[in-house]
Each structure stands twice: as C-alpha cells, then as structure tokens.
Design brief:
This protein is an all-alpha fold and about 140 residues long. The chain has helices at about 5-10, 15-40, 45-65, 75-85, 100-120. The longest helix has 28 residues, at about 15-40.
Length: about 140
C-alpha cells in the first residue's frame, strides 16, 4: 500500500533538470532568432509578423514552462546573442541583416517582446497566498 501524498506529485525538478531546461531554452532562442532573421526579410511584412510571433511564443512559453519570470531570460539571451552575431559583417562582405526598416523592427520588436513577456503578471510570490495582502 502506497502512502503518497499530494505533495509528492508537485515536486520541484532537480537541479540537473532545470539546467537542461534552461540550456534547451537558450538553444531554442538561437534557432528562433536565426529562422526569424531569414523569414523577416523574405516575406515582408508577413515574415516580420511571423518572426516576431515566434519570438513572443518562445519567450512566453519559457515563462510558463519554468513557472518563473526568469524563464524568459534564457531564450531571450540565446535570441539576442544570435541576432548580434548575425548583424556583424563577415570578411566576405556578407551579412544576414540588411539596412532596412524590417531588420530594425525585428531587432527592436524582439527586445520589446522579451521585456513584455518578462513583466506580465500571473505569478504569485513564493510562500505568499494568491490574494493581495492589505489595502
């Protein structure tokens, strides 16, 4: 006979699982940035909307998956590092981003999306009830 309680089902993940989750989110952020960099210029303006929607979806999913606001930091870091690396010109003279408005909208829109996803509500403070305390 098992004496499992409700607390056993809501265990926190191990440290190794959390590290793997955040590392996976960084990789996904890099992939979304690379795909978005190619799509936003190919099908303007629909590609720009699609690229930003992918970034917003990943950032918001990171917060929901980890259950914390810090969950947007890992994919946003991967996204930002990849975008910065893709904006640098190479010795051959090629680079992914052009000097158009779509490229700047993708860069700024992705950063704004990360900030918005990090600041949206819906999370309770640890150890506190969900209701507001006091007036």
């Amino acid at each position: 006979m098992s004496t499992r309680t409700a607390m056993d089902d809501t265990r926190t993940p191990s440290r190794a699982a959390r590290i793997a989750l955040y590392a996976g989110l960084v990789v996904l952020g890099a992939l979304v940035a690379a795909a978005g960099a190619l799509v936003q210029a190919a099908w303007f303006p629909g590609g720009l909307v699609l690229a930003l929607a992918g970034a917003v979806g990943l950032f918001y999913s990171g917060t929901q998956l980890t259950g914390a606001r810090g969950g947007v930091g890992a994919p946003a870091a991967g996204w930002l590092i990849t975008v910065v690396l893709l904006t640098a010109s190479r010795p051959e003279g090629d680079f992914v981003f052009g000097a158009g408005m779509g490229s700047y909208a993708f860069l700024l829109g992705g950063m704004v999306a990360a900030v918005i996803c990090a600041t949206i509500g819906g999370f309770t403070q640890p150890g506190a009830p969900a209701a507001r305390l006091g007036k």
